[in-house]
Design goal:
CATH topology: Peroxisomal Thiolase, Chain A, domain 1
CATH superfamily: Thiolase/Chalcone synthase
Order of helices and strands: EHEEHHEHHHEHEHEHEHEHEHHEEEEE
Strand order of the largest sheet: 5-4-6-7-1-8-15-14-9-10-12
Structural class: alpha/beta
Distance between the termini: 7 Å
CATH architecture: 3-Layer(aba) Sandwich
Helix content: 25-40%
Strand content: 15-25%
CATH class: Alpha Beta
Number of helices: 13
Number of strands: 15
Radius of gyration: 20 Å
Shape: globular
Largest sheet: 11 strands, mixed
């Protein structure tokens, strides 16, 4: 039997909406979040592609003083957490039996970059402001959630690159399964465009070659990121947050909560191969998929849908294609696989959490969101890549992958119903 940890609430902040239903509907309608933004603060004539969060009314949830002292990544996390608690019907979490586990990869780098700009151009170190340090710390989102809701349980921040939020969900589920907490607020967040960070992905051959004028005369945001496509040229960054309320089955039952899904298994492991390139064999990505399924107590042929990491990088997709083909084997053609990063962008440390939001929404609707941006699938693909339009499908078992720089690999398995016996 798997972990059997109940998911009773979820909240999302994304480039295509701030509720699970809005995000799902806008993706199913093939809306595009990717747009052109200036390459640097002072250079509007050169551009890069980016999928920004817009129209987020954080002030509807938190006061201006709090918001002025935190980076956009923490604002996104706090709004998603507030929405998740509201969805779960929890007003006052138990202060000693509630854990917080959040993931982030870039944390407050936008604030840090802006401070550097102000210091260099507007009068020395005083221009940076007095709250700079606490704005950029990676743990500040989790800490602010703890302070706002007066929670004194475990308060943890993970930074495993783009696997951060999926690892946070898995760790939170294990805290509950071990009896260390009754409730856990888990997920991940990213916020803001930090040009110096994004620019660093160009020499690493990870950022889309269709940005920065690198694609010649091609200026087409729908071709900026093409997961698993033969012409894929790299990723396009985005931002957002996905936060979930996890509970033990007993705790959820006592308060009459109706779970929207169940975390059953988590796998996490390191490539130990290269700082920016995954092992092309896919061996270690396959391993975490296997670990997650084994902890869930099932076999690979039970998985209905896989939310692939699918960033559209030439080398990253090669490794994941190999991993999926190897892990599912003959069953691969029966697994509906998709990636939304071509339309939603890649919210890095929040990617796994947002994929789970879409997976749970798809479970409820009996539908799988298609892979945006992809035209000609890589011939190495041996699985059912969902293209062009959403797919109707009953989803009883859902798996999500999240892989990051440094060889950080994670996979999570979720069921629609509790597993008994």
């Amino acid at each position: 039997m798997g972990l059997n940890v109940a998911i009773t609430g979820m909240g999302v902040v994304s480039a295509l909406g701030h509720t699970p239903t809005e995000l799902f509907e806008r993706l199913r309608n093939d809306e595009l979040a990717v747009r052109e933004v200036p390459w640097t603060i002072d250079d509007p004539d050169r551009f890069e592609y980016w999928a920004p969060v817009t129209d987020l009314d954080a002030a509807a949830w938190f006061d201006a003083k709090l918001l002025s002292g935190i980076d956009p990544f923490a604002q996104n996390a706090m709004v998603a957490a507030a929405r998740a608690l509201q969805h779960a019907g929890i007003d006052s979490p138990d202060p000693l039996r509630t854990a917080i586990v959040l993931g982030t990869s870039k944390n407050g780098t936008q604030t840090l970059e802006r401070a550097q700009y102000d210091v260099e151009r507007h009068g020395g170190r005083q221009a940076a402001g007095g709250k700079l340090m606490i704005k950029v710390w990676p743990n500040i989102a989790a800490a602010q959630i703890a302070m706002h809701w007066k929670l004194h349980g475990p308060c943890l921040t993970l930074s495993t690159a783009c696997a951060s939020s999926l690892d946070a969900i898995g760790l939170g589920a294990r805290l509950i399964a071990s009896g260390s907490a009754d409730v856990a607020i888990v997920g991940g967040a990213e916020g803001g465009l930090a040009h110096n960070v994004e620019d660093g992905f160009v020499p690493a051959s990870a950022y889309s070659r269709y940005a920065y004028g690198m694609g010649g005369n091609i200026v087409d945001p729908r071709r900026a990121c093409m997961p698993f496509d033969v012409e894929r040229g790299g990723m396009v960054f985005g931002e957002g947050a996905g936060v979930f309320i996890l509970e033990s089955a007993a705790h959820a039952e006592r308060r009459g909560a109706k779970p929207i899904g169940w975390v059953q298994g988590w796998g996490t492991a390191a490539d130990a191969y290269h700082p920016s390139t995954p092992d092309p064999s896919g061996e270690w990505e396959r391993l975490v998929m296997d670990l997650a399924v084994k902890e869930a107590g099932i076999t690979p042929d039970r998985i209905d849908v896989l939310a692939a990491h699918g960033t559209g990088t030439p080398k990253g997709d090669i490794a994941e294609i190999a991993a999926i083909n190897q892990f599912y084997g003959e069953h691969a053609k029966n697994v509906s696989v998709s990636s939304v990063k071509g339309t939603l962008g890649h919210p890095t440390g929040a990617a796994g959490a947002i994929a789970l939001v879409l997976g749970l929404e798809g479970m409820a609707k009996g539908e799988v969101i298609h892979t945006g941006g992809t035209r000609t699938p890589d011939p190495a693909i041996g699985f059912d890549l969902v293209l062009d339009e959403p797919r109707r499908r009953q989803v009883d078992w859902f798996q999500a992958n999240a892989f990051g720089f440094g060889g950080q690999n994670a996979s999570l398995v979720v069921s629609s119903e509790a597993v008994t016996g």
